[in-house]
Amino acid sequence: MKNNRIGLILVGSMLAVIALVVTLLLQRQQAEHAEQVRVQGLGMVRSLAALPVSVLAPGKGAPSVLDSILAYRDNPDFAYAAVSLENGRNLAEVASAGALVPPAAPLALTGFAEREIAAGQNGRMIREFHGPVASADQKTQVRIGYFAPRTPLALKDLPFYALIALAMFLLVPLIYLVIKREMAPLAALGEQLRTAAACQAGAGQALVIAPGADQDADVRGLAHKLNRYLDQASARIRELEQESVASMASGRLLEYGSNKMQAVLQCLPDGLLVLDPAGEVTFATGKIEPLLGVPVTDVLSQPVEAWCRDPELRAMLARFRSAGLDTRSQMTIEFNPAGVPDKRLWATAQALLGHSMAYGTLVVLRDATREHLARQAGNDFVAHVAHELKSPLNVIGMYGEMLADAGVDDPAVRVEAINVIQDEVERMNSLVNNLLNVSKLEMGSMRPERHRVKLDDLLRDAWQQARSRAEGKGIRLELQVARDLAAVSVDKDLFRIAINNLLNNAIKYNQAGGSVVLAADEGDTDVVIAVRDSGIGMSVDDREHVTEKFFRVRETGDQQRGGHGLGLYLTNQIVELHHGRLTIDSELGHGSVFSIHLKKMPALVEGGQVL
Amino acid sequence: MNKRTILLVDDEPHVIRVLRLMLEREGYEVVSANDGAEALAKMDARRPDVMVSDIQMAGMDGRALCRTARERYPDEPFPILVMTSMTATGEREWVRELANVDFLEKPLSPRQLIARLAAHFAAAATQQEKTHAA
Fold first, then answer.
1. Is this complex scored with an ipTM above 0.90?
2. Which CATH number fits domain A268-367: 3.30.420.40, 3.30.450.20, 3.30.230.10, 3.40.1350.10?
């Protein structure tokens, strides 16, 4: 601990201070002592100098003042006292034990003085005070000597010094405690900094604090560390700022990506719903409103029961919610949504799985109305065709049975039966042919190969083919084609089908003795091919629907003609394929006129090949 | 004894023609109609002993005809035979709701129809004799 070092420094410096104080005290004491000795010595010399010589040196055998001084000396350091003449002879002298009277110094003119006599054999220095005797004729002086104190440290002062030292020494822990207390926050800060630095170092930072740093850490170390930490922190801040910029950029990118994904999802023609594992909707696209009839706002953050009115959808979602993680399968149902009853929807549910956890369920809603209608139409078509094929078969079967019956012997009935069978076979044949053509037409595989065609020949052929059939029914078939008719661009085979269908109808829906006219005329821009009959005609209502697939005019009366509702549909389709127009003019009971309007071949290519 | 009357309803005139020829030869009186409405009109004039009807007809179809006939004459449940294709499985459902209606498979065999009618009338005659005896 650096604090221990502080403690040692404190102790050392305190001891030095104590030593200094003790030295100063001793010096002071010595100075005082010397002064005291000087005052005493000088005082004694003055008082002795005032005495008459006789008193000072009464002669042999008589007690001298000096003897009484020695006897009553109050100073343990008293060395000697003497009265000396100028020549150095001592008139009187006394000395304490162990002291020799040194030879006298010449008398100073100034009178009283002192001198120091260096240590002799006994090793003690002596301070001597001397002064002239006032009453003497001769130059007589009085000398008193004192030993310099032997030991500067008097034993009696020891407790005093000890007390001072103790008092001062006791200050040390106090100061130490105070310092330690003051240093505590700094130490804690240092520790924290060290830990922080260590943490950063552990997190892959380059800067590492030495493990032993805490042992000699002091305030400077702390400051150093603090600086380093600040450097490190600023570096880290810069790093973080860079990271923040980078993360902001990547955040923008992510947001852009997410927005794009949202836009993609919203633009999907299918409606999407995402349910969390608890069954609440977390995402829905706007397409669900037209599909389910429920706005997105009613759906978001709501359980299925709150918005879903379709039992089929609810059942499926409930199944997906109750099923565990294992549901990797998807499930599709088809239903009519309660909110939009005229629609048909496919709903596909798929568990959202990833990283071995379930995020919920994805529901894709697809508008299957068209597919449903197409399927229905297909079913209707099959049913209709089956019926149309079965009806003639039924009739053929019954007539066949009747012919086989031995009981029929009327030849007229036999002829009738055979005719009916032939008619029905023809009807079936025409139905199958037309069906094949319609199928080709609808599949788009019927591509008209248009050529310049002289209508005269085409119409004449058709007229000749139909004539025998018309005559068999007692119907007159006429051909009225204008000379030099403009050429048209048509597919010969297809056009033949269209015209044959019109002629067949005109003959079929006619009465014996009636007439059919196949005519072709040229207008300003059009060539018009017309089939006019004096047949049964049709009502305005029927006229509107007569070119629809499988439409059949409701017939009244005994004589009925088997039709299958494809002939006019096919004719109309073929005419439209040639960019022409089929018009119908009809009056019930007075016959009909079916007209094909075709654009004339442009003059530019008039010189082209004519078939 | 009065001739048994059969009401034939079909929009295919050839069917009516053949059946009429064959049934008349068997000694039945045949009344025919082109659709449901006409059949009801004929029925109104005189209830037939048996009605034979097609189902798929323009105008009033066989279904509506059978229901109307049963509703209009609840006390005269004369047998009705409807001609239907085996393909139309859904047809069987509505027929069960009505009393004394049975199927005739299409394509129809006139001989089979004659046999069915004969069996029916024979059974009816036996029933009548039994009630007389009682």
1. no
2. 3.30.450.20
